[in-house]
Amino acid sequence: MRDELLDFLLSKGPQLSGQLAAGLADWLEITPAAARKKIERRNASVRELKLPFARRAKFLYAASQYGSDKFWTRLAEALEEGNGAYARVIRALRARGGLLPLAHLAAAAGISSGARQISFDRAWQDLVETELFQTIEVPGLGECFAFAKKDTNIDELLPDIRARLITETVLLQSVQEWAAKLGLGSFASFELRGIQQGAAPTVSIFEWDLTAPSYVSALTTWSKAGRPNPGFMVLDVLLKDEVELSDVQPFIYKCKTLRQVRNVRTLQFFVAHRYAHEALNAMRREGIIPATTESLFGTDVARALMELTATLKQAATEAVDLEKFSELFAKLGKVGGAVGTLRGALFEFVVADLMRRTVGGANVLMNKIYRKGGKDVAEVDVRVHVPDSEIRFIECKGLLPGRILPDLEVDAWLNKRIPAVREQTIENSEFKNVKLTFELWLTGELSPEAQEKISKAQATVGPNKYTIKVMLAPEIEDAVKKFPDLRKVVKQHFLEHPMAEPLGTINQVSKRQISQVAAAFSDLTHVDFGSTSAEAGQSPA
Predict the structure, then answer these.
(1) Is the predicted pLDDT of residue 415 greater than 70, yes or no?
(2) In the chain, where are the structural domains located?
């Protein structure tokens, strides 16, 4: 028997029950009451989304429509009518490829901490309970929020997501230096987004990707006692090919709402590669500055940022042209702040490329994620698999010369990542009789306590289970000496890098940069997409 309600949904798309009843009545030439009856008596092929909508409406869709572009567009439109917070979450998630760190969600979606607003916890938990969304642990990124599409492999999303996040981190660090040089905020007062929840920069009732108190005259007010009260620079970033109107709507909402908050004066920036015409006009109408990477840093740096994203994506599955990456390193290093982030990625590329050149017949994979019970439990920076022979799991730590790897990182490698990866590996029948070797490649140094822990583990573990090896700077230099291009990169960026010079030989601005980079990127293998900063509100230096 023909299902007229299902046919209508398949033809017209998902929609709210009130709109559906009116459309169905016109389509079938029946009364609205008869149309509502058909909706009440719907069968299992027409589904209802368990979320609150205005006037107790229900969002109905055909089972086959779930997850389509039209499904998400219509759902966002329906939520916008009665509850914009949920709609902004969907728009933010779609704009960022379907997955983002949970710590970034409040800023990206414009979730407010103000009174009579849906809280951050409730917003994402309500959406997860619909089973259309999920939270997952991703090593290096922490807890993440994602679409729960059954036909989507999270592993396929991660290369693009990681590449964008690393590039955005480079951009935010560069914007920090650009804004500080212009006097929009003092260098030490900037706050940049991080991975951990609660670490996001905040101005008033919203979180942002970058903030700084600003004493620019147009933003500053003065107390009766003659003391200045700063305004703020606030900025969000999204690096995709082209930012569309729906992508910037959460940011526009934040900016418009903030104007209604008393005693808060802000200079509002959004940064992207380029904008669709509608997005550009919408931001200009609201007095927002729609900056581009080219307008801030010039054509060369803008192109280098786009090339960096493409290079990082490529590195997930194949060899990277190290000469090209070194050129990107040089171009982006000019804008400051970017060097620490790029060095971590570069060292992984070097190790992976060395393995491809020296281990015959090996399958070399970067940033391999291991899962258990649906959760990510460990990540391997470089995995080298020689079929029917050996698997090498390499942990890459590209530190500056003289830097000591934190003991906590050694503990996590020995006691968490190695056992988790080994357990997942031996469960695969393909790997049952192969030799397992876990290696730490470190250009910095180990503390005496860490050395003792590693020696104890090496002596305790039987060779029939697995082997533990450590490669320090002299061994790494020896390993690449046959390859002039690799040797040049290793010496230039890891063994003889100018940032390792005594602080007295470097100017004052560079000293501040070094202290920030060192603090934020002490673990350069699992990139921390953020930066440390002093307490906001400090007067300009």
Answers:
(1) yes
(2) 4-147, 154-312, 317-520
